[in-house]
Amino acid sequence: MKENLKEFMDDPWWIVTDSVAETLENELSKELSSDHILYAKKALAVARREDNDDVVYWIKELDKFAVVHLTYGKEISPNFPKTELYTLAELETHCKHISSLY
Q: What global pTM score does this model have?
């Protein structure tokens, strides 16, 4: 999955290593309330922004990518951590837009 992202992930995005991915996946599972859209779904961290706490996860069950703004705290609202779902094409557009601001 990470291979598909390398073509369009430019600053401030970077592809995460397996060890960083594991840390980010654990953090996400700690933050989610039982009402969150990603709760109990397998989320694979694939990329992150270097300038904030946005992480890109692959959610196979939804066949989508999720851009999640981690809060580093346990959330009780289904609205947090803030999550946006994207197809690969939509994610490319989103990431390129962010990169164009740099």
A: 0.95
